[in-house]
Amino acid sequence: MLARRPKESREGYSVFIATSLLLLVAVILGGMGAHVVDRMRSSANALDDNRAILAAEAAVSSFKGKLAATVRDNAVWDEAYKAITQGDRDAWTYENWGKTSADYALYDGVVLTAPAGGKSIAYLKANMIDPREYLGAKFLGQTESAARPGMDPIVNFFKSGNDIIAVASEAVQPFGSQVEDSQYYVLSFFKTLTSEVVAEMAKDHQLPKLHITYGPAGDLLNSPLTDVDGVEVARLAWPSAAPGNTIFDEVRPFIAAAIAVLGVYLVGVLYAGWSETRRLKSLADRARHEATHDSLSGLLNRLGLIEGLNRLMQANKSQMLVLHLIDLDGFKAVNDAWGHAIGDQLIRLVAEALRDIHPDAAGVARLGGDEFALIQLGSANLAELDDQLLERLKKPFFIEGRTIEIGASIGVASRDDAEDAHELLRRADMALYEAKETGRGCAIIYHPDLDRQREKIAALESELRRALQKDEIQPVFQPLASAASGDITGVEALARWRRAEGAIGPDAFIPLAEKCGLIDILGLQMLRKSIVASKAWAPLSLSVNVSPIQLCNLNFAGDVLAVLEEEGFDPSRLTLEITEAVLMSNPEQARRSITALKSAGIRFALDDFGAGYASIGTLREFGFDRMKIDRSLVQAMDDGSTGRNVLTATISLAMALGIPVTAEGIESADQADALRVAGCDQLQGYLVGRPMGRDELVSWLASSIAA
Length: 707
Fold this sequence. Notes:
Layout: H1 5-75, H2 78-86, H3 89-98, E1 109-113, E2 121-124, E3 127-128, H4 131-135, H5 138-146, E4 154-160, E5 163-171, E6 186-192, H6 195-205, E7 211-213, E8 221-226, E9 232-238, H7 243-292, H8 302-315, E10 321-329, H9 331-338, H10 340-355, E11 361-368, E12 371-377, H11 382-394, E13 397-399, E14 402-404, E15 407-414, H12 421-438, E16 443-445, H13 448-469, E17 473-482, E18 488-497, H14 506-515, H15 519-534, E19 541-545, H16 548-551, H17 556-567, E20 574-578, H18 581-585, H19 587-598, E21 603-609, H20 616-622, E22 626-629, H21 631-635, H22 641-656, E23 661-663, H23 669-678, E24 682-683, H24 694-706
Parallel strand pairs: 15-16, 18-19, 19-20, 20-21, 21-22, 22-23, 23-24
Antiparallel strand pairs: 1-2, 1-6, 2-3, 4-5, 5-6, 7-9, 8-9, 10-12, 10-15, 11-12, 13-14, 17-18, 17-24
Helix pairs in contact: 1-6, 1-7, 2-3, 9-10, 15-17, 17-19
């Protein structure tokens, strides 16, 4: 499959190019035809819309013109002028105009406005009204503008309630003769634009569905109606006739038929190419998905995570982006206890939990085994999100009736100045390593000190490798004495690394050797050197510390026996000291190695008892030949009766199990006496003797024997 992908890619590319060219030609031709048809349709619509707007304007102009002509016929009238200025103005107005307004087609009402604030006379449908109240304050402005002879009538629209009213005003004046009045009465006729009036306008000017609207006209065509100040009071609105659409609807079946014929042709020509392209694309998509996703959880894998991070980092460089690396605590124990099928289900449940953990989670990946990654986008608090992750993964998971509890350690790194996804992942990985070293179950955010610390450790690791090659790490020996007689019964070999720059303690270089895979070499070197040095000290016993990692090495027992045989050392003189950590991490392999070495005569001591969690069951199961009490219990004797009681109880426990006890860290005679009384049979510490090199120990032993 991998070998065929380039060929499939080339074939797919060729098919894609040919298909694209054919489609391009078809699209261009179809687009040109569609453009022509649409241009014709839109042009026809636009022409008719322009005609309709002009017709609406003509309708309004005609309506205003009729009303203006009516008011002119009545305002420029000798008899009217004389009656209003010299006769019974009220009676004349009512008889000639007010009464007529009851059912007159040309106007609905009349207003005779007196000059200089005089009394105005107004009728609406033969009923007297208050013109100011009915037509509003702006009406006075129109009459003031019209109160001059020789002017054309002024016509504007007014809004009264829900009615739109056209008002035409002109000064009342004699026809043909000149007068010198300083002020003139103004005659105003008004006509309400009722639905009947609007319908008549629509009929006369071919404007179907013409109506008045007071708000935005939306998609409708419209023409404004304005008042004396030019302010819009309403609009005449009507739908576009859209004749182009009508024509298009008529020819639509023919266009559809042409498109169908072209479509059938294209389908026939392109089907094979489309089918092949789809097949190749499906193969490519499947291969791509498999390459970037984890098959068990469905999450992104490491490659998918790297690609996703790079895209996000390039897309928005100012956006907050954080990577959380999550390592499950206790997952190996689940696999060991329940099998890999349950472990796989646990991985799926963890994946589901991480997908839904927080809205800012932009992506989740499984990097392999029990390690996951979560990409955070947004402004959520880092500590808050990490707390959510830790708390969620502490909650029990229920699988096939089993309650499974795990935890997590988290390493966090934000984008900051990270150049790419690989650097961001490296930083998060360093923070995760620190979280696991700190004690697990916590979250550590990357900071530059981790780099400096890693560089320091890397330099020390290189130096440790050179030290092992140059044989710079040597054993020193601390005497072990009988608690009863004080006689020297053995020595414990301790590794020391002395450099020109200064000595490095075993608490620093031994854990480093364990982490970087050098502990097996270091352990065998110390064992061989210790055996070579102590061969001449028979019958003194030799105790050598063994790392848990050494004991879990399948070849450990064979390597130890080979050294004993090569150096001709009596196995019964050798005691290997181990801590309980190995019994917790890999008890089965530890048991196999211990059994093989005990059968050869080598003895085992449980070191640092009291500093951890070793149980009575552990002591019985592994059959230790000696128990070494941690120095912290010895020092606690000086703190009061409680510490002394704990120490006495610990020794009593060992005695009850038939296990002899060695006490470490003895610095005073009072401590030695108390331990002797409690039942401890062997002492070690500065009271007995400090750690010494081989030659110094030989001299010390000689002086001790002579004394």
